[in-house]
Amino acid sequence: MEKSDVENVVRLEALSYGEHHWSKESFYNELNNNLAHYYCAVDENDTLLGYAGCWHIFDEAHITTLSVHPDHRKKGVAQHLIFSIIDDCYKNKIKYITLEVRESNIAAISLYEKNGFKSIGTRKNYYQDNNENALIMFTENIWYEKFKTLYNNLKTAIQ
Asked: Could you report the per-residue pLDDT of 120-157, keeping only the tens digit for each?
């Protein structure tokens, strides 16, 4: 993600998350944050399909956001964004990846589980808009053979 992407990212953010979305300033701050790594998925016309971000803290990456435009969901965009995060984690010697996801977001939970994430707990009343709980999800060490095999099989099946 570049500063020039922020306008489109914020439009998609608002479309995805309603009035409780991140502001332009939040994304600009993230782009200036040394811990933050943000990615955009675009088509051949440079139309934004989705975006994701995470923080690298020591040997852990925490996914802060991931969104795909409603017109492009269930087409592999989120999967490719997750691949970008995992690839970057390998480059940066990260061992674990965490995230929070709404308990009601079954499609996202299924995608994360397919990518080796497991629920390890709940954050009660995590989401401000409706006090919905968040599942805390975590990967095993991504350098373990089991995870690497899963990851390589997913990448091979997609490409």
From this structure: 999 998 887 788 899 999 999 999 999 999 999 999 99
Q: Quick one: pLDDT at residue 4?
A: 93
- 79 is in which domain, residue-wise? 3-158
With vertex at residue 56, the alpha carbon angle to CA 63 and CA 103, rounded to the nearest 5 degrees, is 20
Using CA atoms, how far apart are residues 150 and 75, in angstroms rounded to an integer?
Answer: 20
As separate numbers, helices (DSSP H) first and strands (DSSP E) second, the chain gives 5, 6
Domain with residue 18: its CATH number is 3.40.630.30
Work out how many domains the chain is built from and give that number.
1
Q: Which residues are catalytic?
A: 100, 112
Share of the chain above pLDDT 70, in %: 99
Q: How buried is residue 110: exposed, middle or buried, by Cβ count under 10 Å (0-12/13-18/19+)? A: exposed
Q: Which two tokens stand for residue 116?
A: 């080796």
Cα 120 to Cα 132: distance, rounded to the nearest angstrom = 17
pTM, rounded to two decimals:
0.92
Beta bridge partners of 36: 55
Q: Which residue has the tokens 């309603």?
A: 18
